[in-house]
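User: I'll paste a sequence; please echo it back and then give the predicted structure.

Assistant: Echoing your sequence first, then the prediction.
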Amino acid sequence: MLPPAPPLTRLNVGSLAEDILKGNLIVFLGAGASLSSPLPGKPNCTLPSASRLSRILLAQLYRDPGYKQEINRCIHLQLSSNLSLAAQYCASVADEDWVYNKLTSVFTGDYQPTDLHRALASVTKRQERHSPKYPRHAPLVLTTNYDMIVEKALSEIGQCFDQIVYRSTPFTLPDGELDRKGYFLRTKSDFDPVAGKWSTSRTVIEDPAKDTGISVTGDVYEHLHTRPVLLKIHGSRHDSNALASYIITQDHYIRYLSQMNAKSFLPAQLINILRNHRYLFLGYSLTDSNVHAQLSQFWDLQPVQTRHYAIRRNPTAVEVQLWKQRGVDIYNGDLNDFGADLLRELQSRAPLP
């Protein structure tokens, strides 16, 4: 029998903060990392967990006059405990557009960044201010979340960034040239401090193997990207419905996983970055088979002996075993506490005014 996961200590947080500032870690953000993000004036109104989102979709379906459904309690319980199954059911009764519209309405609220989001967003400015102690090696954050909270945290401090989103729905660029499905869309967000305005540009990544859209320094091995990159592999909410895209139904996952070979699917620059850095998993559970299958693609890029880290509150013995099998040291800790401690450790090592 495995011993329980050790508690997360200040020493652990300090070591992780140092690794993040030095650009040694890639942060993976799961649903648990956003569950405490509040709405202004409504501290008890936060983003839903997977099971709660299932119940929201089903409740909306029951109330919609066009699709009102009566199902027995047994089926309801089965659907409400499995988000991809619930979404598949809703799409079969209504359609995918109905599911997308409901998801967009859920995630459109002005949810605020937590200390964790603000800590990660501040890394590049800390590196710039404290170079050469900390080289300018901006963070790569990979997430399966649909929300825009990391983007909001970056925007609040005027940090330019790249967002790369997997799109499961067709999208035509303004010039009408491209209409792709199952590709990544890059959005570059740039802030002009003089004018106090943001500008964005979007590009469909046609050939991932030849993509050079990430600003990098250093040699091919290092690929030190000079601005934060947010990779959203499950799609994302967007202010424009035409740009919103979600991987959520069982059909979505099947199509996605059938083509999701990280070595050929992701932009080549990202592969080099993912291959040569360790991972920090926040807000994930490996008991979710969809998550487990997708994260396996990224582990396969890594040397077998590479050690990674995860933080989860009260992980079960099953989770400890699954993480250990993947070479991940898991710590028992609350992500709210970790975010606050991480922010303090970053400020201690690389203070900002």
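Residues 36 and 46 are 6 Å apart (CA to CA). The first helix runs from residue 10 to 21.
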